[in-house]
Amino acid sequence: MFSAFPLLRLPRLVLFDVFKSLNIAEKIKLSICSKKVSTQINNCRLYSQKVHVHLDMYSHKIEVFENGEDKFKIFNRSDSGTNTDPYKQQYQIGGCTVPVISYPEKISAFWKNHREGFLFVIRHLLKIFQCKFSTTINYYNNDLSQLIISKLFDLQLEFKMLNIYPDGSNHQNWLWKQKSSNFGLVEYLTIFSIVNPAFTPVFTSWPQNVTIMDSNWFTLKYLLACTSTTITLKGSRLGNKDVDEVLRKWKTGGFPNLQLLEIESRNITSFGATILGMNLRELNKLVIHSDDGSKKATIRHFYDRIEISVTPSE
């Protein structure tokens, strides 16, 4: 007959080593057993830059990845109070007692309010790990995702990936105006088709890497102001004259962070204006240097796409 192991009676350092040896599912499931266990795990501070949290607001699901391999899912379900599932047990998540059904690689938590459920889970994860987040804002999850993202930006938390489908709604316009100053906290930002053409995004800061799908609205003025490391423009309207201005600005010290610029546009053609005094055939595979000699840019042309790759000069 087995007896319960007195885990919390272990010496502090030994206990912390036990916590650190657990996989992501074991860490999270143990952390919600009781306030006492949760406090001990929080004190252990299992912080790791390798913990990535994906928020799927459409499916009311939170996925936690560790080391890019281990994954644990947390489903936020609605609790009507009428479900008497015998497998439900009371657990502590983010300081709130909530009914939970536990499975080997996931849990289902039953909340009175989905929004509060997301925030409680996020709060709990942040006490254990140093997390980077990823999520998508679209018309399916507008209200919930905007609330969550607004809270995370207020906490100055980092995003691994943020995908946005701008729909021009008043709520999303407000979020953009209020929170675009936090885009510097985003590693990869992808902006998809703008549903409402009357909506014109204004950037008050830039992510590390930005991809604009259907970027016909992303003018040369936007590009000249962009400070991102990697810039990818799909379906652009930029042409030869625009690329010429970009390269001339880069040569004189502009785009100090730039490592890669990709522009996909039918307006970049062999029949338009020259770029740096050359046609596209002459420009392909050309290497140019910045005026101060510190950097070099390799230019490549592929049908309707031009790529500018920047590296330090040797």
TrEMBL record:
Residues annotated as domain F-box: 4-50
A Pfam family that the UniProt record links to this protein: F-box
Organism classification: Eukaryota, Metazoa, Ecdysozoa, Nematoda, Chromadorea
Organism in which the protein naturally occurs: Caenorhabditis remanei
Protein name (record): F-box domain-containing protein
InterPro entries from the UniProt entry: F-box_dom (IPR001810), F-box_Sdz-33 (IPR012885)
